[in-house]
Every structure is written in C-alpha cells, then in structure tokens.
Amino acid sequence: ASIKLLLSDVTSVAAALGGAEEERLNGIVAALESLVAPLQGGERGERRQQLEAKLQAQLEALHREMAGEGDAEACGSCYGAAPDGSCCNTCDDVRAAYRKKRWGMPPMSSIPQCAREERRRAVSHDGGEGCNLYGTLEVARVTGTLTLAPVSLVHAPKSLLALALPTSRQQATEPGRFNVTHQIKKLSFGRDFPGQQSPLDGAWTHSPGGAAVARYFLKVVPTTYEFLSGEALHSSQYSTTQHFKELGPDSALTPSVQFTFELTPLRVSKREERGGSLLVFLTRSAAVIGGLFTVAGIVDSAWYHSSRHLIKMRQGKAA
C-alpha cells in the first residue's frame, strides 16, 4: 500500500510539472509499477533478485529526477541565443545568453535548466518537511474553528511586531507545496479521565494530491467525572465527522486542516461506585455456595431414585 501511495504522489507532482518532466516521471512510474506487480505476486529465487535490482535502479532514477538531477546534460542548449557549440548548463547561463541577444525571456517553466534548478530549490526548501504540533489552547464556550495553514511571517515597522499574511500573498508555487497529509496523535478537550476514548486519537489522513482542505466537525459534550474520594473532574468528550476536499492548481482556497467545534447544552455525569462491603460479599458468596449444594442435592436424589427404580425393574424381570 505504501508504494502505491508513493507512486500516486509522484503522478500528482508530474501532472503539476507538465512538459518533458511529466513524461519522464510518468515513464519511471510505469516502470516501477511493472516491477512491483511481479514482486507482490510472489516471485522467488534469481528472478526476484533481478527484479529487486531493477527496482532499486528505478527508485534511484526517481530520486534524481525529483531532485532535479535526472535531466542534467554535459552541454545544455542555449536555444539559439548563443553561437553553435556554446553550452548553457544553468538557468543563469540561459538568461545571460538571452540578455546578450536582447531576446525576451520565455517562461521559466519551459526551460529545462530553470525547471531543474527550481526542483532543486524545492527539495532544499522541503528538506525535513513536516512538523509536529503540540500544546494546549484555551477556547471560549462557543462555536469556533482551529485552523492550521501555511502563512508568511513578515516583519513590520516597530509599531507592529509581525503581520501574518494569508497564502494568497505568497508565490503561486507555495500553496501546492503544503501537503496536508497528517496524523493526529491525540486531541482532547479538557483533562483525561479513566476510560476516556477520543475518536481522533491516532487518526491518519492521506492527501494524494498534496494541497487540500481537511475539515473535522466536532460535537463537544461537557462531562463531569466523580471519583470515589468525592473529587470531581470537569472535562469533555466529543464525536466527529470529517470532510476532505483536494485542491487543484487554480483553486483560490488555502490548503489547511481545520477543526470546527461546537459545545452542546447537555452535560454527562460519570461516577465511580464501590461494588459493596465485605459483609455483602460474604452474603453473596454464601448464597452461591448454598445454591451449589442445593443443586447437588437435587442431582444426587434424582440419581439415587433412578438407580433404585432400575434395580427393581431388573429384579422383576428376573423373577
């Protein structure tokens, strides 16, 4: 299942890149799928070793391609902006050649050298991608929403410490890099009490296309738990429903994970109670033991009378 998710993510990235990069990535994905199928089918022996070696080679090619190193050439083309025999191996070389020729620069995505360097920057930008969020948050007892989304922190003048800009103010490529695949280790409202089970603990959501909006709608029920000592713990339980929407490259929505919570007017009370005193335990034990003796007596009596009746029947036939 993990390799299928990986290939699905690569296909989504390839569709976003377009052009020759998309063709190369799709070719590698097709080759990987053709190798994975027989391996999953149970190939053994020398044939399996050959397939694994080819699979390793294709994975390395995929890694180089995703890092922007798969299409590097010994002498890159200058696309007519420089004399024959000139090499433009970097995006800056292509820009310099176009400036010297006084030509208008085409879109960066259409120049392989520039697209390759952009992917390298993306890999550097996303190095160690992912984050862990933990902590507590005080919320009012009204309906609200907790949103996790990418923002840009811009330092403002001394009168303002900082200003959080929405993703729409960032570069167009930034939102697509925000993959909302996530796992919720633990989410609770209030302190934990014995026997509490939260439906989102351990929940995992995968976003094949990367950018998406994942929304959780929580119904929070205030709960009071009373211990044997008389101490009361005020906490909450909740139920949840989920909505997931993938975002395309032209979507105006911001990729995010949202938790919308609503407190109900009801309250649940739970109380610890003792099973009973020692006297009650002894009384119940005596009743159980007495019942066993009574049943044993009934069985013994039935067995005795049945045996006597059978003996008399045999004696009558003998006479």
Provide tags for this entry.
elongated; five-stranded mixed sheet; two-stranded antiparallel ribbon; 319 residues
Describe the protein in words.
- The chain has six helices and nine strands, in the order H-H-H-H-H-E-E-E-E-E-E-E-E-E-H.
- It has 319 residues and is of the alpha/beta class.
- The strands form three sheets. Strands 1, 6, 7, 8 and 9 form a five-stranded mixed beta sheet that branches.
- Helix 1 packs antiparallel against helix 2 (19-40) and helix 2 (19-40) runs antiparallel to helix 3.
- The longest helix is centred in the last third of the chain and has 41 residues, at 278-318.
- It is elongated, with a radius of gyration of 36 Å.
Q: Quick gist of this model?
A:
By secondary structure, this protein is α/β, with parallel strands linked by helices. It is built from six helices and nine strands, in the order αααααβββββββββα.
Element layout with pairings:
Layout: H1 2-17, H2 19-40, H3 45-66, H4 91-101, H5 112-125, E1 144-148, E2 152-154, E3 163-165, E4 182-184, E5 203-205, E6 212-226, E7 232-246, E8 256-263, E9 268-271, H6 278-318
Parallel strand pairs: 6-8, 6-9
Antiparallel strand pairs: 1-8, 2-3, 4-5, 6-7
